[in-house]
Amino acid sequence: MATGKRAPAGAAVLRGDITAAIRNAVMHELAEVGYGRLSIEAVARRAGVGKTAIYRRWGNKLEMVLEIVEDVAGRSVPLPDTGSFAGDLQLIMMIVSRALQHRIASQIIPDLMAEAARNQQIAETLQKALRTHQTAVGDKLVGQAVARGELPAGTDPEVAVDMILGPLYWHLAVSRTPLADDYLEKLTSAVMAAMRNTVPD
Questions:
Q1: Closest Cα partner for 73 from 136, 125, 138, 18?
Q2: Which of 63, 55, 73, 32 is nearest to 169 (CA)?
């Protein structure tokens, strides 16, 4: 008679569906009440689990939020290769602007940035995750443009990504101003002109 494998006992069993439910609950709670008012009890209730399920995975609220936010913030965005610098810029701007306008992200990002001013661990986690992502975007877009001869060798990827993402973040996460229909097209032209006229050190 065939017998199934016995699952490990105790804390070794961390079901993926429960972890996913908790992560989803954390994001929704952050969007609704912010980090300051977020509680383990509320997360557990929304996820449909007991508090022990959360404490088996994270020691406290800060640890839980840091891991989940780092994972979300550090997720790679598809890096485009449309065949032209202009096309790459427009596509990455469209992807980022849509992400910043997502219902949950638009609530969580300003709250966490404000919390980062008071909590060094949150600040360091956000900076690390975002900078890693931004470096990858800058290196890919600028590297492709230099290889095509569209930008001069030595163009600074960090400056480029600041120019690409900075205005979008300002409009959508700080001033919370809707983008005009032609804004991304105008921003693309402005970034291209500025980068082509930048003289590398």
A1: 125
A2: 73
- Helix-then-strand count for the chain, H and E: 9, 0
Contact 127, 119 (CB under 8 A): no
Residues across the chain: 201
Task: Give Cα 196 to chain centroid, integer Å.
Answer: 28
Structure tokens at 154: 């030595």
Q: 77 or 164: whose pLDDT is higher? A: 164
Extract the tokens encoding 117.
Answer: 């001013």
pLDDT at 73: 73
Query: How many angstroms separate the first and last alpha carbons of the chain?
Result: 74
Domain ranges within the chain, ordered by starting residue? 14-72, 75-196
For residue range 154-187, list pLDDT tens digits in order. Answer: 899 999 889 988 999 899 888 888 899 999 999 9
CATH 1.10.10.60 is held by the domain 14-72: yes
